[in-house]
Specification:
Blueprint (H helix, E strand, L loop, with lengths): L2 E2 H9 L14 E4 L5 E2 L1 E5 L4 H9 L4 E4 L16 H8 L2 E4 L2 H4 L6 H8 L3 E5 L7 E10 H11 L6 E2 L5 E8 L7 H7 L3 E4 L4 H10 L2 E4 L2 H6 L2 H11 L4 E4 L16
Length: 258
């Protein structure tokens, strides 16, 4: 029996309902029709022209992405515009963004926390998109940073020492640095995120909070493989594949040795 896009949307509703997305967001079926049957699906963090080309070459009728392919109102499109390319190729796009970030059953921050070795990861009482958990034992910030770098397959990352050791750790995937004040409010020793601004780093230093900045892409790409596994289990008749062409293409250059 063929899987339809509507069935996939219904599945997301079971753990990341669209109603839980933040007000500014644009989630759900953004290109295509909900009754369309699909046999091959490409799963990615972002949809670019290269991703559309890969989906077309693999015969995928749907791309599931984390970041919305249409975020702000479209004022114009040309033949290189990604929504245009999707429509031209007859490929639908389902985008699950902050609703997937905020999912307490299974979501980006849950996966990020688990990759850091946190136990009982749950949404924090403070912050917009903040989750927190505890390590099995107190470890050094450097050890935690090395663990994050390895488990997120980072080429490099930035970190600050804070008080030197950590036990309670907050996570805010993507551009989560603005939650540093909420991290202080819940008394966490460290924040793992994907983006943090200069003044937020200064605030973290004032509070003695360690910061691990793994990069936006790496802090969220951690959800893709577990999501594919869930989709495969729920829809065995469809083929779900991780995108191979998309990355943020960031490289790291350092004068410091390990």
């Amino acid at each position: 029996m063929m899987t339809t896009i509507q069935q996939i949307l219904d599945f997301f509703e079971s753990f990341a309902p669209l109603a839980t997305a933040m007000d500014f967001d644009n989630c759900g079926l953004l290109v295509g029709d909900k009754d369309t049957p699909v046999s091959k699906v490409l799963v990615t963090l972002d949809i670019t022209a290269e991703v559309v080309k890969e989906a077309k070459e693999k015969g995928c009728g749907l791309i599931i992405s984390h970041h919305p392919v249409i975020f702000q109102p479209l004022r114009r499109m040309n033949s290189r515009s990604v929504p245009y390319l999707l429509a031209q190729a007859g490929i639908a796009a389902v985008c699950m963004h902050t609703n997937l970030d905020l999912s307490e059953k299974f979501g980006v921050n849950i996966c990020l926390g688990q990759a850091a070795g946190l136990k009982e990861v749950c949404r924090a009482p403070e912050g917009e998109c903040l989750f927190a958990g505890t390590l099995e034992e107190t470890i050094s910030v450097r050890e935690l940073a090395q663990r994050v770098m390895q488990n997120l397959a980072c080429s490099g990352l930035r970190y600050t020492e804070g008080r030197g050791t950590v036990r309670t750790v907050a996570v805010a995937s993507g551009a989560g640095g603005s939650d540093i004040f909420a991290v202080a409010a819940i008394g966490a020793d460290a924040l793992i995120t994907g983006e943090i601004k200069h003044h937020e780093i200064n605030a973290a230093n004032e509070y003695g909070i360690a910061v691990i900045d793994a990069g936006h892409f790496k802090s969220e790409d951690i959800v893709i493989n577990p999501l594919i596994a869930r989709l495969k289990e729920e829809f065995p008749s469809a083929e779900f594949t991780k995108c191979q062409t998309y990355s943020d293409k960031m490289k790291y250059l350092s004068s410091l040795s390990n």
